[in-house]
Amino acid sequence: QEAEDAYLKQQKVLGAILHIKGLNSEASRENIKELFDNYGTVRFIDFKKDQGLEEAYVRFAEENKAKEALEKVLEANNGELKLKDAKLDVRVLE
Q1: Straight-line distance from the first to the last Cα atom of the chain, in angstroms, rounded to the nearest whole number
Q2: Radius of gyration over alpha carbons of the chain, in Å?
Q3: Which residues, 6 or more positions from 12, have their beta carbon under 8 angstroms from its beta carbon?
Q4: Of 33, 48, 50, 66, which has fewest CB within 10 angstroms of its CB?
Q5: pTM of the model
Q6: pLDDT band at 92 (very low <50, low <70, confident <90, very high)
Q7: 58 CB neighbour count, 10 Å cutoff
């Protein structure tokens, strides 16, 4: 039970998930990881391609890292977030 409780606690990392919409068909998990990996440890990426609705969830290992990583990526790219010529809509999940 202790091991299960520790695992569940580890999974509840606040402020660690970005939701990305607007990806195009050329985007891949690897592209998304490259975009954010320099700004925090990416634990995993849930990437969905479904009839023109491409979206992803990027989960960082550290608490509150999503907002910081997003701000740094925007700063490095003159306030825009693009991947494979697609302008992305990104928000931090709380």
Answers
A1: 27
A2: 14
A3: none
A4: 50
A5: 0.81
A6: very high
A7: 28
